[in-house]
Write a structure and sequence with these properties.
By secondary structure, the chain is an alpha/beta fold. The protein is built from 13 helices and 16 strands.
Length: 405
């Protein structure tokens, strides 16, 4: 069993219809790379990841002519790992999880996802997710909406037992976060708080953990996770995008410390399949986040079932899903999404508004830390080809301006 060819194929799947008129918000997730690993026994393995990624000639040369088995334990991108696990599993006629370890579960809790959104849009996305069978939802906070107002909007529409996963972007100091967390934790819907503080402030994490009832999730342990676990910085640690071998090691280390993991793999259905196999073999898994609920098109032709908040670990050999090569070729030839220019209006709580081209740098404009300004709201005006829009764009050539009433 030897690798004879490795390809990285760029595709441009359409975003789901509900986001068709919000292209600026979802820019960056509307492209994928499909990895194709071919073996000398004729087996083809597939994987995917978000964005357009290029494999160097050196990387391909290091793979071609070698056995795929050792590469399961090497440092590769998760998309390439997915293709390798798929190829080896198909060759041995075993599911990918059998190549990773002991199976702990047949279904994995999964989370829906969206980009930062207004309270109204976020509430609508939560309702959409509930209708699709999800019971967990992840979203990033941002500087141009109030975190408390967003949380209230989610609480108002979420059913009992629904879990909201806030990602606070690891950019705040203890001064900025302590009072905010004390308020956020009063909402029953909030179940996980990811990256409330700078990753380097491991002692600050420990102190916050002692003061809040919310489970804290650390995305990228700067010291490798071991020291953070010993210090007691977090309740959960994220795995997945740092590679499958490291994810397995960290997942078991967390379990030994009686901590949990969150799996994150950002891609389409192939990526989710890999994550489900990983989720099957890690002892303590809270949930998994993926992007498959953001697309109307996928090279596999569909998505995994979501019911009662979880998806099944695939059966069959390899990743357990098949690629439609005609659909792959169509998406390879499809044009990239054109993202229109935007004019931003950042409405402030006392009635003023900052107006500018493109996305606002809120911290620079206002001086306030992310998410702490009550009543702040962003409104976007996309380029529509009208003379009025163009005139307004030209008038903002000198940079942002503050308009007061």
């Amino acid at each position: 069993m030897k690798i004879t060819d490795v390809e990285a194929i760029h595709i441009n799947p359409k975003l789901c219809a509900r986001n068709a008129n919000q292209k600026p918000r979802f820019s960056g997730i509307d492209t994928q790379t499909i990895y194709k690993v071919t073996l000398n026994n004729g087996v083809v393995g597939w994987g995917d990841t978000r964005g357009h990624v290029t494999l160097s000639d050196t990387a391909v040369s290091a793979l071609v002519g070698t056995s795929p088995m050792p590469h399961l334990h090497n440092d590769h991108s998760t998309g390439l790992h997915g293709a390798l696990y798929d190829a080896v599993g198909k060759s041995l006629e075993v599911p990918a999880w059998q190549l990773m370890g002991r199976k702990y579960r047949d279904r994995v809790p999964v989370a829906a996802w969206t980009r930062p959104a207004s309270p109204e849009d976020l509430a609508a996305e939560v309702q959409r997710a509930v209708g699709e069978g999800y019971m967990t939802f992840k979203s990033h906070s941002c500087a141009y909406y109030c975190v408390v107002e967003q949380t209230q909007a989610v609480q108002d529409v979420a059913p009992a037992g629904f879990r909201f996963h806030w990602d606070f972007n690891h950019n705040r100091t203890p001064t900025d976060i302590m009072r905010l967390v004390a308020e956020i934790e009063t909402y029953p819907v909030v179940a996980v708080l990811e990256d409330p503080l700078n990753w380097r402030d491991v002692e600050g994490w420990r102190q916050l953990r002692e003061k809040t009832s919310l489970p804290l999730l650390m995305h990228v342990p700067q010291l490798g996770a071991g020291p953070e676990i010993r210090i007691g910085s977090a309740d959960l640690y994220m795995v997945g995008e740092n590679g499958i071998p490291l994810s397995i090691r960290r997942g078991h280390a967390c379990a030994e410390a009686n901590l949990s993991t969150v799996i994150q793999l950002t891609g389409g259905t192939l990526s989710k399949a890999l994550g489900l196999h990983l989720g099957a073999v890690l002892p303590n898994v809270s949930h998994m986040t993926n992007l498959d609920d953001q697309y109307d098109e996928d090279v596999t032709g569909g998505r995994f079932e979501v019911a009662e908040g979880s998806s099944p670990v695939p059966g069959g050999s390899g990743l357990g899903v098949d690629v439609d090569e005609k659909e792959l070729q169509r998406l390879r030839e499809a044009p990239k999404t054109i993202v229109p220019r935007i004019i931003s209006e950042l409405h402030m709580p006392m009635g003023g508004r900052f107006v500018m081209r493109g996305w606002p740098n809120v911290d620079r404009l206002t001086g306030f830390p992310e998410g702490n300004v009550r009543g702040i709201r962003l409104e976007l005006s996309e380029e529509d080809g009208s003379p009025e829009w163009t005139k307004r764009w030209d008038a903002l050539a000198d940079g942002p301006r503050l308009e007061t009433t």
